[in-house]
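Hi R.,

Here's the chain you asked about this morning:
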Amino acid sequence: MTAIATIALLMPGTAMASNHKKNHEVKPKHRIEHRMHVAHRPEIGKRFKHRPDNGKFIIVNRERMWTANGVLYKMISTRTGTVFVVAGYLR
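And the predicted structure, written out as tokens:
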């Protein structure tokens, strides 16, 4: 029985299919689009509807701001939701 299982794992078709299922991730569309825009430094004043990935909240001049990839975002609350506006750069 173990020999049959070993042979099945060594076959390229079944191994690729099992790896594809394990590593398959579905990312929200808005995060992927934002990552494309942030590949270069966005200009100051550019607005984003969604918070950028891999960031954290920091306090700058007694104001809570979001920072990600060296870009500083100011959070503005509107009637339709929160908007993240590029306020500056950390580096």
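The mean pLDDT is 76.

Let me know if you need anything else.
M.
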